[in-house]
């Protein structure tokens, strides 16, 4: 091995997120629709039959499969499967910032327009109900923010003798802001609220 070999290796490397191959990757679509002279955002309520997060509010989306050519393709595919619509009914799909979750997930969000809402026949195995919220509501409503504090706890046989400070090492604590939007009887929070908030920040005048 020499410097030229190292340089050539680095030139061919595309920088990404360290350890990304171990993350679960998901793609979601924030659907916009025109209704009653306003723009609405469409949400799903997850089916009670689902193992993960039954009954929670989310955007259409799911895990990126090997056959998906891109995160955008995965977001559109999942949306068509969950809402029972055709690809052609989803227009103007644009990416917004992706999100790296502290729980081992990378989420790729997209914003798109659904033209023919009357054609929606959602998959009841995955979706309990759908509902829409006027965009104007979110533009006029700030979310409530609460903090979640996490603490690092080394395993029992952790080699404290190998690090400065030993068992008194000052582990850096982490706080996560959780956003909550309340609309009628619906509570929008978690990753869905964070993606929604990011979209609003990007599009506010």
Automatic annotation (TrEMBL):
One of its GO terms (molecular function) is 8-oxo-7,8-dihydrodeoxyguanosine triphosphate pyrophosphatase activity. It comes from Bacillus salitolerans. The keyword Magnesium applies. Keywords: Hydrolase, Magnesium, Manganese, Metal-binding. It holds the Pfam family NUDIX. InterPro entries: CoAse (IPR045121), NUDIX_hydrolase-like_dom_sf (IPR015797), NUDIX_hydrolase_dom (IPR000086). Its EC number is 3.6.1.55. Residues 23-156 form the Nudix hydrolase domain. The lineage of its organism: Bacteria, Bacillati, Bacillota, Bacilli, Bacillales. Its cofactor is Mg(2+); Mn(2+). This is NUDIX hydrolase.
